[in-house]
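Progress report, Aim 2. The chain analyzed during this reporting quarter is listed below.
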Amino acid sequence: CIAGLLEPTSGKIFFGDKDVTQLQPKDRNIGMVFQSYALYPHLKVIDNIAFPLKQKGMKKAERYEKARKIAEMLQIEYLLDRKPTQLSGGQQQRVSIARALVRNPAVILADEPTGALDSHTGREVIGMLQQLHSEGHTVVLITHDNSIAVQAERIIRLEDGQVVYDGDAHAPEAIVQPTLSGEAAQEEAK
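Predicted structure tokens for the chain:
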């Protein structure tokens, strides 16, 4: 809903004084990082990174210049002429992050950005997102992994569509307690 991919069934989402649902997708100042990378397999890396700028109508030379700068920042400039199928999962996720950053968004939405990565590469991706946050970007990270969630400053935990926690990620109550199911819950009740 924040990205405008779905409309809220109730309530409203505002960035500043603007209702997100009233903005055209190209006018939203949001970058998306998907768990499945969502790269265009027929495009080279540079074109995948520059794609949001093409949608805004920016000229090719300027798009490529910005894409190269972001690729250098993420240390993937050597991948620019490859296609996504020629990349590892970690490389594809870095390309996805570069594409999310190319417009210098105020908000970065990262949906399970480490879900398909090995632990080492996952830590690198989380480190990149933490760096972006320290540079002034708002990072909204969706994860089921509590070890990743507790690295944030704030956690908003949802269960069955309801907010069950909203607060400091380092508070004791921020830690997810295992849910007992079926027989285990009955044994616990005895």
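The CA atoms of residues 81 and 107 lie 28 Å apart. The mean pLDDT is 85. These observations will guide the mutagenesis work planned for the next reporting period.
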